[in-house]
Every structure is written in structure tokens, then in C-alpha cells.
Amino acid sequence: MTQAVNNLKPEINHLFSVAPMLDWTDRHCRYFYRVMSKQAVLYTEMVTTGAIIYGKGDYLQFHQAEHPVVLQLGGSDPADMAKAAVTAQKYGYDEININVGCPSDRVQNGRFGACLMAEPDTVSDCLIAMQQACDLPVTVKSRIGIDDFDSYEFLTQFVEKVQNAGCQHFIVHARKAWLKGLSPKQNREIPPLDYQRVYQLKKDFPELTFSINGGIETIEQAKQHLEFVDGVMLGRAVYQNPFLMQQVDEHIYDQTANTMNRFDVAEAMLEYMEIETAQGATSWHIARHMLGLFNGQPKARLWRRFLSENARQFPQGNDLLKQAIQLMK
Fold this sequence. Notes:
By secondary structure, the chain is an alpha/beta fold. It has an 8-stranded parallel beta barrel, surrounded by 5 helices. It is built from 16 helices and 8 strands. Helix 5 runs parallel beside helix 6 (152-164). It has helices at 27-36, 49-54, 78-91, 105-109, 120-133, 152-164, 184-187, 195-204, 219-225, 236-240, 248-251, 262-268, 270-278, 283-287, 300-310, 319-328, and strands at residues 16-18, 41-48, 69-74, 95-100, 138-142, 169-173, 209-213, 231-234.
């Protein structure tokens, strides 16, 4: 194993971040979240090294308003990870995260994701190659264990080895993953949460940065976790109730309160939808991420239904969103 090099770019403030969610946290979704929070760290969907190096599509495009934005990378070949890291730096990403937490069969077949918890040397080699190739901070997102390798000793050995390769920030989903027998959805729900194990990591490795993920649903819960760790990461709770993001800057970062209401947020997306659909997106590509904006409010079902049923009628421009707003008002 070659010697690690130090990251040259300062770390971003990970007090609050939105998890990488496949098929969900695309660039339109991230822009929508950025309307409500200027401080939260946003992650891309997981992108594989193969898609970046050999794919025909542009999988790394993002809007400059999305900063700070982190690319989550899937792969296990150090040379390919380094190539992808160089490309990510050219695009202007703030940070790169290695996926060592996804338990799906497809990801395992590609030899990345949660199965790499059993291969800390591979993760370390990838880290070192990426840090030597680019100046971006490289972080790792993992579980607390896999299958029968779920002791605290196993977890600390993984952290120690990856730390020695230069990783300073670990995002830990506080559940272990079963690589066989459970679907990704079941792996988010069935293995029990063990927040104390993540708290203990912070006690035992005080020099490292730890963010906690899994089962966190409210800003108040996030603040409670921040008494023990350095950052919190929310996923589906944000996607299902995106207006939660409006509280982040004030209650997590102690910044000036965002006074936007739900209508303000929807109206702030009108220009974006018009521009993006003129460049090839459809209104549904954007509106689908906004279905939960009025969750818990009167006529929330009407909002979701109108967007879903009329997206084909108004594929371009922002008429779909304009009419939905008028309907709610």
C-alpha cells in the first residue's frame, strides 16, 4: 500500500446533509432543496466509475447553486476511482464520498457498496489513489457492520485502516447490512438501529469527523444526535417532507431564519423549470421531487394528484407548476 497524501481542500461543514438516494437525489432534486437551505450539504445519487469513464451520458452535471455538493462514487478499482476523482474535480464538486454502505445485489455484483466493509485494504487503496490524483476531500459512507461481521471490534478495525489511508470523515448508517436475504428497503428497516455504537466511535476516535445516518426524521432528532457526533444525515424523511429543509439553516447552523413559505418555495422553482425544460428536461423530471412540498397541509393530496396527472399535458415550460400553485391558493 502506498503512502497517503493529505487533502488540500478544506472540509465543508457537515452539520446537516441530505443522503445520496438512487433515482431521487438528482440535480433537479438538489436544486429544489437548495432553495430552502443554503447551508445543508447535498449528495448526488451514487454514480459508478464505469458510468463516468465509459458512459455516454453526462452523469456529473449540476447547477452552481447546489454548492456545497458531494459526489458519491461507487467502485473498487483504485485506478478507476482515481480517474473518476479527477473528473469530479474538473466539474467543480466540493468533495467525493466512497459508497461502502449500499447492500443491493447489483452493487455487490460490481464489488462495491457494503460488501467493501470486509475489504478495508481495498477501500484504503482507493482512497490513496483518489487523494493522489485530486485535491478534493474523500470521505467514506458505511454501515456499522455486515452479516455476521457486526462486532464493535470489526467496525473499529475498519475505521482504523481507512483512517490510516487518509480518511478524516466517516458517515455511518447506524444499522448493519445483511448482504443476502434482505432487499435494500428491508436493510433500511429490519436491522435494528444502534446509535450508541456511532457515538462510541466518536469517543474512541475524537480526532475524526463522524456523521450519523439512519432513522432520523425531524430537525429536533437531528439536534439531539449533534450532542454526540459531528453531523447528521437525513434521507427519506427529507424526500417525503422536503419543507423540513426550510428549518435547517436556522435550527442547525444558527443562521438567519429562512422565512419562505411553501408557496414561496414553489414559485422559486418556476424560472428553474422554464429554463431546464427549454434545455431538454421535462416538467415531471422536476415536479416529481416536489410532490411532498405540501405534506401535512390542507389539500396536499390535491397538489400531488394534479402534478402527477397533468405532467404529460404540460411537459415543457412551467405551466404545470403555475397551475398547481393556483389550485392550492
